[in-house]
């Protein structure tokens, strides 16, 4: 699933995303360009340096977890 970054993903916003991802047992991957990181990795997420209007792909082990997607969209981090 592709989402667009709504605000820069640094310190606090990165922590919110990692904490949201950690609530779910399955693997959540974030893909940007040649990078593929685990959404539960704060260091990996910071390395992506996500900026507004960038499009990133979220891949899930198994089915897309709408609960996670809804959480990060409602937190104002991404838009569908």
Structural overview:
With 80 residues, this protein is an alpha+beta fold. It has one domain: Histidine-containing Protein, Chain: A, CATH 3.30.1340. Helices cover 35% and strands 26% of the residues. Strands 3-2-4-1-5 form a five-stranded antiparallel sheet. It is globular.
The biggest beta sheet, please? 5 strands, antiparallel
Strand content: 25-35%
What is the CATH architecture annotation?
Answer: 2-Layer Sandwich
Mass-distribution shape: globular
Classified in CATH, the superfamily is HPr-like
Structural class label: alpha+beta
Q: The CATH topology, please?
A: Histidine-containing Protein, Chain: A
| Elements, N to C (H/E) | EHEEHEHE
What is the typical, i.e. mean, pLDDT?
Answer: 94
Give the tally of β-strands. Answer: 5
Tally the helices: 3
CATH class: Alpha Beta
| Rg (C-alpha, Å) | 11 Å
List segments where confidence is low: pLDDT < 50 over at least 5 consecutive residues: none
Number of spatially distinct domains: 1
**What helical percentage do the residues reach?**
25-40%
Question: Which strand order does the major sheet show?
Answer: 3-2-4-1-5
